[in-house]
Amino acid sequence: MKNKVMLPFIFCFLLLSFNIFSSERISFKDFSQEIEKNIKDGAMEYIKNQQCFVSYNNIVFKNFYINHVKLYATCIEIDPAKRIEWDYPKIPENAEVKTIYIFGEDMAEKIRDDLKRKKMGFLFTKLAYYKTSHEKYKKNEYFYFESSAVK
Known about the structure:
The protein is of the alpha+beta class. The protein is built from 3 helices and 5 strands; from the N terminus they run H-H-E-E-E-H-E-E. Strands 1-2-3-5-4 form a 5-stranded mixed β-barrel.
């Protein structure tokens, strides 16, 4: 009788363990390459030099590992050659809140640590978004990436 009860528990444990250890974990570099590919294919475009102030964040875990960070932020375009105003930025009243996804376990960990230290302002050099004609398009949804090939 004990064997009949233990067998389902062992099976569930093995199934759960296999699922956790076999899941794909993406790096920020791999995610950036995927975004770069989408830009070259014409599915995405990007905006540059955004100074963003986070109002809310959400850290998403998948299989006990950090998967991505979702930031809700108000962003303004800045000129990197000029001094960046962090204390009293000039945010227009009609500025919309953007949803910014940061994928890749390594970069998501870095952003999460910054958020723990109460950092609420970020400078994003490139934020990609799907074109309005693309099926995955959502208004004000952006993906942070870094690439030397995309200028």
